[in-house]
Specification:
Two copies of one chain form a homodimer.
Chain A lengths: L5 H10 L6 H12 L8 H10 L6 H14 L2 E4 L7 E4 L8 E5 L5 E4 L2 H14 L2 E12 L1 H5 L5
Parallel strand pairs in A: 3-5
Antiparallel strand pairs in A: 1-2, 3-4
The structure holds a DNA duplex.
Chain lengths: 151, 151
DNA sequence: TCTTTAATGAGAATGATACACAATCAATTC
DNA sequence: GAATTGATTGTGTATCATTCTCATTAAAGA
């Protein structure tokens, strides 16, 4: 959960015998320039890049997102749309969680410092190296509660 | 997050103009008789039922799992195997969370009462009706930390 | 018992993601 | 700074979980 620059990404990759490519650097930049509380799916990232004239293939996008999630650079969010979303994995005080309406998929972000502490402590106790920790609340929003019928 | 019997399931379904079918009752029973800390994927449930001579179609299984998750009877877990898992959504003191190794997918369950409190409070504050609340920790287990190379 | 319509089963369709492999190019070595 | 090595990319294809379609069946209420 650190802030990455192209340089620090490069050294972390090289440490493992891997490489910093223009594609990886570009994708990191996109996430760093994304408005707070904004997350992207693979497909959304692909089209966003296309719009900027950056032709990075879908395969590379999927590979890079997975790689960066496993490095702890990105968080992989399982919201409710049937595909994963990704966002920068930021430390306190930007770390946050998600409240999702299971009917309309509306998502609210919220912060709670004690959760990250709990996650850190739990991982530590088991000897795990923490990458990400997210509280996901599934619920029914006020609007959907009123619209009685459809589950 | 209540405990369900066939009868309470039936009345909750009927309230909405829906029906309790033998298939739904059977599936609820399977989860109720499952050992603690055990969860099932759709496919696993399908084969488990086959083994017991219960021929419930995969379609029905998928539909029922989704339905029960949206009713708050089951929790939908996004572990690391590329498909969802389901388990009974149990209240305190059985409520628990998951610590997952992103490399080998090993999963540990852990309890923490304050998280459910946080989730309840957060949902309430926003006027949401809580169904489930799970803290998911992504990390690297001790074994995979030692096996340096593969991410 | 009859009527209504939700639910099921079987198979086909969808769609997110992974894979295969030849071509490319980042990092390292000399 | 040219050569070498093997990680990475792009294209197309494959996979696999999940959803959909639709004819048939059967709960629930009258």
């Amino acid at each position: 959960m650190a802030l990455y620059t192209a340089t620090s990404l490069k050294s972390e990759l090289n440490e493992r015998g891997w490489r910093l490519t223009p594609q990886r650097e570009t994708i990191l930049q996109v996430f760093q320039n994304l408005p707070k509380a904004k997350h992207l799916s693979a497909e959304e990232l692909y089209h966003l890049l296309q719009g900027e004239g950056e032709n990075i293939s879908l395969s590379t996008i999927y590979r890079t997102l997975k790689l960066m999630a496993r490095m702890g650079i990105l968080r992989e969010l399982e919201l409710a749309e049937g595909h994963k979303h990704y966002e920068l994995n930021q430390p306190y005080p930007h770390h946050h969680h998600h409240l999702i309406c299971v009917r309309c998929n509306k998502t609210i972000e919220f912060k709670n410092d004690s959760i990250l502490k709990t996650g850190t402590k739990t991982a530590q106790k088991e000897g795990y190296h923490l990458l990400d920790c997210q509280l996901t609340i599934h619920a029914v929003c006020p609007t959907c509660q009123r619209a009685l019928l459809p589950i």
